[in-house]
Design goal:
Blueprint (H helix, E strand, L loop, with lengths): L1 E7 L4 H12 L4 E8 L7 E4 L2 E4 L1 E2 L10 E4 L3 H13 L3 E4 L11 E2 L6 H5 L4 E3 L3 H17 L1 E10 L6 H16 L30 H14 L5 E8 L6 E9 L5 H9 L4 E3 L11 H4 L5 E8 L6 E8 L3 H17 L2
Parallel strand pairs: 1-2, 1-6, 2-5, 6-7, 7-9, 8-9, 10-11, 13-14
Antiparallel strand pairs: 3-4, 10-12, 12-15, 14-15
Helix pairs in contact: 1-9, 4-6
Length: 334
């Protein structure tokens, strides 16, 4: 049990789910503190039937805190979280700022729990699109060694924060009414559209979101030899990211073997009956902590290829749930 836990970004889209999970899962801590920007500081939230006043995030607010769970923009994490480490806290960070630093653990508890338990400083939670993919790749990698991955993502507007969903709703209404709408989270209209760019332009024509999937996957699986090509697309769905994943392994993996591997791996659920139109969809996976896999089939373009469809709630397992699971892992081994 932790004596004191602080949630940074407690009023944000992911932060509010972190609070719900800590409450629902009865996280073992005696005292909770909720932190946010000056804009949200002073507001009241309810947690375990008690009213808490949200405090302002500052560099001096971590005294006496043993565990910090943070969901903030990268620049906020970079500015404030080192102060939490200096104050002696364990820190679980949802931002992308620290993930690829060599001395930072990048953790999905079902895959590399020891990285969290052995971490000396900040523990990072991966990008949401990476998390669901590595969960699916891990049993295949253990059984047949993944050599190459080609992934296309179809990512929900909630991945762009609360404003992303506001843009989807307001933009859709405006489109249907024949009116204009000024988008704030997206550079192009998202209503009735697909935007083939998430993140900034990086290297060789890839975006930052796509390169996150490359580098983070290799780090989590501990294998820099895996070749990965990603294309990330924003679509007009409010929640749950979907991915088409094509995998080449050292030896062939049949769809039947893949179903067994997926079914027996923690955090994965197989939903796969094409003949009856049964497969994971954002509308059926919303609100779940599982990662769902369907449309499992032989890749007919390669003798060692396998193709499948993967859907996960990006705000839960892709963010809040993974962070809370890391916290539970640390609490269990105290």
């Amino acid at each position: 049990m932790f004596e004191s836990v602080a949630v940074v970004g407690a009023t944000g889209a992911v932060g509010t789910i972190i609070l719900k999970l800590l409450e629902q899962r009865d996280f073992p801590a005696k005292q909770f503190t909720f932190l946010a920007s000056a804009r949200s500081a002073g507001s009241t939230l309810k947690f375990k039937d008690e009213d808490y006043t949200v405090k302002e995030l500052t560099k001096d607010c971590f005294a006496g805190i043993e565990l910090v769970i943070a969901s903030t923009p990268d620049d906020t994490a970079a500015e404030f979280l080192p102060a939490a480490i200096q104050a002696g806290a364990k820190v679980i960070d949802e931002s992308g700022y620290f993930r690829m630093k060599p001395d930072v653990a990048l953790v999905v508890p079902e895959i590399n729990p020891d990285a969290a338990l052995n971490a000396k400083g900040i523990i990072s939670s991966p990008n949401c699109s990476t998390t669901q993919m590595v969960l699916a790749l891990k049993p295949l990698h253990d059984a047949a060694t993944v050599k190459r991955v080609v992934v296309s993502t179809y990512q929900a507007t909630s991945g762009a924060g609360l404003q992303g969903n506001r843009d989807l709703e307001a933009g859709s209404r405006a489109h249907l009414a024949g009116e204009t709408y000024e988008y704030k989270a997206f550079a192009h209209p998202i209503a009735f559209n697909a935007i083939p760019q998430i993140g900034s332009h990086k290297e060789a024509g890839y975006t930052s979101e796509e390169m996150k999937m490359v580098y983070e996957t290799r780090k989590i699986l501990g294998d820099d030899s895996i070749q990965i090509s990603a294309t990330c697309v924003r679509i007009p769905v409010s929640n749950c990211h979907s991915e088409v994943i094509m995998v080449e392994t050292e030896r062939p993996v049949s769809p039947e073997e893949a179903r067994d591997l997926f079914s027996n791996f923690p955090g994965l659920t197989v939903v796969d009956d094409l003949g009856n139109g049964v497969y994971p969809m954002p509308s059926t996976c919303d609100g779940s902590d599982e990662t769902f896999i369907g449309r499992i089939r032989k890749d007919i373009s390669h003798p060692n290829g396998l193709t499948f469809w993967c859907v996960s709630d990006n705000l839960r397992k892709g963010a809040a749930t993974n962070a809370v699971q890391i916290a539970e892992l640390l609490a269990k081994h105290r």
